[in-house]
Design brief:
Layout lengths: L1 E3 L1 H4 L2 E4 L5 E2 L5 E2 L3 E6 L3 E7 L2 E2 L4 E9 L4 E2 L5 E7 L2 E7 L7 E6 L5 E11 L2 E13 L19 E3 L2 H5 L4 E3 L2 E3 L3 E11 L4 E5 L4 E5 L9 E2 L4 E6 L8 H27 L5 H24 E2 L2 E5 L4 E6 L6 E2 L4 E6 L3 E8 L10 E9 L5 E2 L6 E5 L10 E8 L9 E8 L5 E5 L4 E3 L2 E9 L2 E12 L3 E6 L7 E4 L1 H7 L14
Helix pairs in contact: 3-4
């Protein structure tokens, strides 16, 4: 059972006590009270009227799964109000809309209590606790809080839970940690040696391609036929005649070896003569099997030595080639090697690399080395004689985003600087040379806050000022919140609108 109390759930009670709203009857209505609770798995955003003895109170609760910031799938949910020795429980078999549940509780005793939300999912049982819930003895006791300072909502934007659930959206707390100096470079992307092979011609002749299967990027299987090197029509390169000659030589040498083996057993020939026959037999057999396995009547049958794809075609159809000439490059590209050159002045810092991030060119997404299943192969083992720089070599699994023969941007973070505040790079927005974050006031109210950023490794960015470590910020979907500004802000004190 997962039960989270005030101490570990970071309870935030948002009291809208700055002013009251006037009902159609002319009477003032007390403002809504909003509670936010975070557990490791869930975000609860609940909104209620003030709890008053003898008065039915509506509770509107939103449940968001933090793993993907999507709503709780429809399951029965119960809520219990504990106040003093009294306990009031209400059940909701299904949501009014996915992720949104309503309850009505009529408390009979005043005091300070707590709300317990309980539900069961495939992941297990969860109990989310809201502490410090006030139950007033009368409505008159609610109004004295109106003298409190009104919550400042300047520069705030409303972005409802329903909007968030329908988009790629999330929030998160900043992180305190070390963040060292940044080294940026460009890395060359190449296949891992051993995962690429060059296919060469084994005889002289003309290249004959059939169909359109010999095209860069075409997937091939090990042993798959690709093309033919034909000596037909060439005086000295008729493979068919050579293959017949090799077969005849092999049969003759085989018969001679078998005959001399029998004679040797009878001691009718010397041992030396048998060994010469055996050597001739083995040599002629090797020549014949080479023709049999690698050549057809029309010429050399070129096949793929591995399963992968054709990376490069080095010849054209009908071209004359000589034995040993490169024909094709076949690659598996399950892994890639990236080599970046950095200035020699960074050599002392390269001994303390903390993280590496990569971005394909062209491309926008930034990957961590761990995300690509990568590792550092070598750092500064030698100096590149061509440019006098220090090579850094990495190996990654091929995600399909990096192209062999291409380049990638590489960001190396090293030399730790302790305890700085960082946020996800996607959280930072830029506007006319200024930088800002959307800071969460409630799960549906966000303040556009100007900040001063520092270094960035592409995934996280240092915030030098403008944000505290306890303030939750929009980490994904900040652009959507920005666009919501143009639709006009709602009054967050007026209660939730559905």
């Amino acid at each position: 059972m997962k039960n989270y109390s005030f101490a570990c759930a970071f309870l935030i009670a948002f009291w809208g006590c700055g002013h009251n709203h006037v009902h159609e009857s002319g009477q003032e209505e007390p403002e809504k009270i909003q509670y936010t609770v975070y557990t490791p798995e869930w975000e609860l955003f609940a909104e209620t009227d003030p709890f008053v003895v003898g008065k039915p109170t509506q509770i509107l609760a939103h449940f968001t799964r933090l793993a993907d910031f999507k709503p709780l799938k429809p399951v029965p949910v119960s809520v219990t109000l504990n106040c003093g020795e009294r306990e009031y429980t209400r059940n909701a078999e299904s949501p009014v809309r996915e992720g949104i549940y309503t309850f009505e509780i009529n408390p009979e005793a005043a005091g300070v209590g707590r709300l317990l939300f309980h539900f069961l999912t495939e992941e297990g049982e969860s109990i989310i606790e809201v502490d410090h819930v006030h139950v007033f003895s009368s409505e008159e006791e609610v109004h004295p809080c109106a003298h409190l300072e009104h919550e400042d909502i300047t520069n705030c934007t409303v972005f409802t839970k329903e909007q968030a659930w329908k988009s790629n959206f999330s929030t998160g707390l900043p992180e305190w940690g070390d963040f060292g100096s940044i080294i940026r470079s460009i890395a060359r992307v190449e296949p891992v040696p051993g995962e690429e092979m060059v296919i060469s011609a084994k005889t002289n002749g003309m290249v004959l391609m059939s169909g359109n299967q010999v095209i860069p990027g075409t997937a091939v299987a090990g042993g798959q036929f690709l093309l033919t090197i034909s000596g037909e029509g060439l005086a000295d390169e008729n493979i068919a005649l050579k293959a017949v000659e090799a077969h005849n030589n092999f049969q003759r040498a085989e018969a001679d070896f078998e005959r001399k083996t029998l004679l040797s057993k009878e001691k009718l020939i010397p041992e030396k003569e048998l060994l010469e026959a055996k050597s001739l037999y083995l040599n002629s057999k090797a020549v014949y099997e080479n023709y049999r396995d690698n050549f057809r009547k029309s010429g050399q049958a070129v096949v793929s030595p591995m399963t992968g794809f054709i990376r490069q075609v080095l010849v054209q159809n009908g071209q004359y080639v000589e034995a040993g000439q490169s024909l094709l490059r076949v690659s598996q590209d399950r892994n890639l090697v990236l080599t970046a050159d950095v200035l020699q002045k960074y050599l002392p810092e390269l001994s303390a690399i903390r993280s590496v991030t990569l971005k394909p060119v062209p491309g926008e997404r930034i990957f961590s080395l761990e995300e690509l299943g990568g590792r550092i192969l070598s750092v500064g083992k030698s100096i590149n004689q061509d440019n006098g720089m220090v090579p850094v070599t990495l190996q990654i699994s091929n995600s399909g985003d990096f192209i062999p023969g291409g380049v990638a941007e590489i960001i190396i973070r090293c030399k730790s600087v302790p305890t700085v505040l960082t946020v996800a790079a996607d959280a930072l927005m830029e506007e006319q040379g200024l930088y800002f974050l959307f800071v969460q006031r409630t799960p549906e109210l966000f303040e556009k806050r100007e900040v001063i950023p520092g270094a960035s490794d592409g995934l996280r960015v240092v915030i030098l000022s403008g944000l505290s470590g306890e303030e939750r910020v929009v980490t994904k979907g900040a652009v959507r919140v920005k666009l919501a500004q143009g639709s006009g802000a709602l009054d967050p004190h007026a209660g939730h609108v559905h």
